[in-house]
Amino acid sequence: MVPLVLPLPSLTVLASVLTGAAARSEAKRGAGDDRGTAVRVAVVKESAPGERRVALVPETVPRLVQAGLQVLVERGAGDGAWFPDSAYTDAGATIASTEDLYRDADAILTVTRPDEAAIGRLRAGQAVIGMLAPLVDPQFARVLAERGVTAISLDGLPRTLSRAQGMDALTSQANVAGYKAALVAAEAYGRFFPLLITAAGTARPAKLLVLGTGVAGLQAIGTARRLGAQVSGYDVRPASKGEVESLGATFLELTSAVSAAGEGGYARELTAEERDAQQAELAAHIARHDVIITTAQVPGRRPPLLVTADAVAAMSPGSVIVDMGSSPLGGNVAGSEPGRTVVTPNGVTIIGAQNLPASVPTASSNAYSRNISALLLHLVGGSPDDPASRALAIDTTDEIQAGVIIAHGGEIVHPAVAKLLDTAEPGVVQAASGQVQNGQAASEQAGGEDADGEPAANQRS
Ligand code: NAD
Question: Which class for 344: exposed (0-12), middle (13-18), buried (19 or more C-beta within 10 A)?
Fold first, then answer.
């Protein structure tokens, strides 16, 4: 294990153990009862507009129960993803009212971050586990810390650790988003994707270009290929060329290309000159395509603009662009508006795709459920044979925990989030609204501004 240098507040976190019984003792004072000693996890109904995912699906419940945990589920929590309450009870969970759930739970499991009403119900010693986007909105993390809540965010997970791959919700949700982006594009496109030879004539295949070929982009490529489109892909990371080609698509080589591989397998932000050269060269390719899907993200920065207004203007009427980077601060495409479909004067449909995983709620919840339960079981110490020994064992010397534990014991313990809060001028780091893929991806985040005053519209640590 790599020893971590932690800021002072984190020292208080080392080997701090939050037992189920201890965490509930405060609640007990108010609630006046104690219903056992196993760790209680609670699945809440998501409250964000249009959010249909649920943090835990019935299939995953037995795994947690066998591990000595109790699972509470808020009434109707799974309805949006087609999981009725009865499926949860059949799997061994208990359906609970909102009030009972917040009172009794040691850990609240969410997909996106809790709303204000939910925050008001959280109590000291309780943990919240979800995609909390603390780098997008560190003030939110501060609010949880001030309430003494342990904030655990899956979007901070170190993604290159092989033992953490089963917990990687950014990847699982980006996969769903990429798949849906191809379907959204096909639905909006006024022609066929495949080559069709019929008695009424021949239809040529759609030419589709995916800009940004990370997890979501590769899934969009695979899906568009299965629909029969002629697919190309482009990315600034040279490593992605082989991945694009392995899916049977063509990798677009730019003569102005620079390697922009950054840390941790991600891309770095391009310089102004590199960006201008890229935009200019891409424009000619974009004009030759019928459908563009953009997924480009740079950790901690606003999504790069890849499709300029001039490039859009040069496209043919009937062309379609799906901008998965669309956010309130701008996306990969000039003129895209998050959550809206815009048709330009020259007949190009630009779809500002937001929270695509929520529109495939059963698949995205299934995957997320496996991710969050894997993380939960990693966090819980003690023995499955002795439920009373089960407890959330917070230890930020563990590489996985160091990434995901944001607040604990009344402190912000995540160095990057603490730094953002320390260095930001009042009012510079703001609460954000709206939905941004990525978890992220595909997920629920939108831009605030980072400590340099640059908009940060996605979430990584
Ligand atoms: P992401 O969502 O941060 O970005 C999407 C893509 O946009 C990336 O491929 C990035 O290179 C690209 N991009 C950024 N700026 C661009 C620009 N100006 N022009 C063109 N493309 C641009 O990335 P992601 O999908 O989360 O994954 C990024 C990398 O992390 C990939 O290499 C992926 O394979 C890797 N990854 C590894 C693991 C693992 O090892 N288990 C897990 C997940 C992801």
Answer: middle
Chain-centre distance for alpha carbon 388: 33
Token pair 């991945």: residue: 243
CA of 213 to the centre of ligand 1 (A): 7
Contact of 109 with 44, CB cutoff 8 Å: yes
Token output for 20: 């189920």
Count CB-CB contacts under 10 A for residue 151.
29
State if residue 301 touches ligand 1 by the CB under 6 angstroms criterion.
no
Q: How far is CA 279 from CA 156, 256, 297, 332, in A?
A: 31, 10, 15, 11
pLDDT per residue as tens digits for the range 6-65 = 333 333 344 444 444 444 444 433 333 334 457 999 999 999 999 999 999 999 999 999
Strands 40-43 and 70-74: parallel
The rounded distance, in Å, linking the Cα atoms of 362 and 154 is 19
Q: Does 8 or 205 have the greater pLDDT score?
A: 205
- Whose Cα sits closest to atom 13 in ligand 1? 296
> CB 419: neighbour CB atoms within 10 A?
14
* For range 331-346, the mean pLDDT: 96
- Answer yes or no: is pLDDT of 97 > 90: yes
- The pLDDT tens digits of the residues spanning 268-295 come to 899 999 999 999 999 999 999 999 999 9
CB of 168 within 6 A of ligand 1: the answer is yes
Pocket test for ligand 1, best of 236, 278, 294, 400 (most atoms within 8 A of CB): 236
What atom of ligand 1 comes closest to residue 440's alpha carbon?
2
Alpha helices in 212-299 (DSSP H): 215-226, 240-246, 272-287
3-state secondary structure of 438: strand
Segments in 47-168 forming alpha helices (H):
61-66, 85-90, 98-104, 116-121, 138-146
The answer to whether the CB of 286 falls within 8 A of the CB of 261 is no
Give distance in angstroms: CA of 61 to centre of ligand 1: 32
Cα dihedral value 372, 374, 380, 382, nearest 10 = 150
Distance of CA 213 to the CA centre of its chain: 17
